[in-house]
Amino acid sequence: MKRVNSFRRTLFLTLFMILLTLIFLFPLFWMVVTALKRPEELATYPISIFPPQAQWIHFQQVLFTNEVTDFFGGLRNTLTISLSTTVIVAISSALAGFGFARYKARGKNFFFGIVLATMMVPLIIMQIPQYIIFSQLGILSLPWPLCYMPWWLTAAPGWAIFIFYYRQFFASLPKELEDAAVIDGCGRLRTFWQIFMPLAGPAVTTTCIFAFQWTYSDYVQPLLYLIDENQVLAVKMLMDVKIPGVKWNLPLPPIPYQMTVGIFYMVPLVFLFFAAQRYFMQGIATTGLKS
User: What whole-number distance in Å separates Cα of residue 134 and Cα of residue 103?
Assistant: First the structure.
């Protein structure tokens, strides 16, 4: 009887997970089939699920036809922002987390509480004062790549969620490592770089994945801060995609081409996750063991 109940439970969970997987994959499926349709097929009713004739040429036009969009220019801008911000955030957050975890100072817990409190403030609330500050500093009209200075300035102090993440990770490491480094004559920065950072590989990888993904998929801040020639792919996908040979003012939406850009847009994120999946899972499992 127990075996029958266990089999039923396993079968139910398996079917439930398959159903849940299909639900999450359906938007991706709809994106692919929409990218293979002609634009005029989306203006007729009823809309068919599968296109009568798959338009694989859309993928070639998006990549190599500037009349559709400047795909590689947008990708260059997106990767420049994402990679540079990720490096700055990973290093600055690790330094702050290391200080909160390994050193005693008066008021340390109070300031750490302030850092955690900033996580409760919605980012959308800070965008207007940040825009005013950056505008008054005159850094919104700089040439490429200095036009991405707003991202670098906000990344330099570290991000609160990653400071907390590093603090939990470094606090879980034994104090003997730090004592041995001091005996060997290592200063604080050398202890951080040569002793603790090599051990924080999973934490660094997890931080880089999240920071890259959040910056890569950001839409609002690039829309506020950047001009067209320096714009990222997320904004170009919605604002700058056109049908070859058709003017924008005609009532024919370029949705198939937008979906095609979206498919290429996801490739770096999918590749990043699968390439660093082992370190990502290890970082989640080993963080928060000690407070």
Answer: 34
> Residue 45 has what DSSP assignment?
S
**Does residue 182 register a pLDDT over 80?**
no
Close Cβ partners of 248 (under 8 Å, ≥ 6 residues apart): 242
- Class of the CATH domain delimited by 64-286: mainly alpha
CA separation for the pair 204, 280 (Å, rounded)? 9
What does the pLDDT read at residue 142?
82
The pLDDT tens digits for 92-133 are: 999 999 888 888 888 888 888 898 888 888 888 888 888 898
User: Domain locations in the chain?
Assistant: 2-55, 64-286
Q: Which residues have a Cβ under 8 Å from the Cβ of 226 and sit 6 or more positions away?
A: 77, 147, 232, 235
Residue 78, amino acid: T
Quote the CA–CA distance of 35 and 99 in Å, as a whole number.
49
148-168 pLDDT, tens digit per residue, is 999 999 999 989 999 998 988
CA-to-CA dists, residue 261 to 16, 93, 241, angstroms: 32, 33, 9
* Cα-based distances in Å from 218 to 47, 79, 215, 255: 31, 12, 5, 20
Burial class (CB in 10 A: 0-12, 13-18, 19+), 279: middle
- Looking at per-residue pLDDT, the higher value among 157 and 282 belongs to 157
Residue 84 has pLDDT above 80, yes or no: yes
Q: What is the pTM of this model?
A: 0.82
| Rounded distance between C-alpha atoms, residue 247 and residue 57, angstroms | 19
Distance CA 88, CA 102 (A): 21
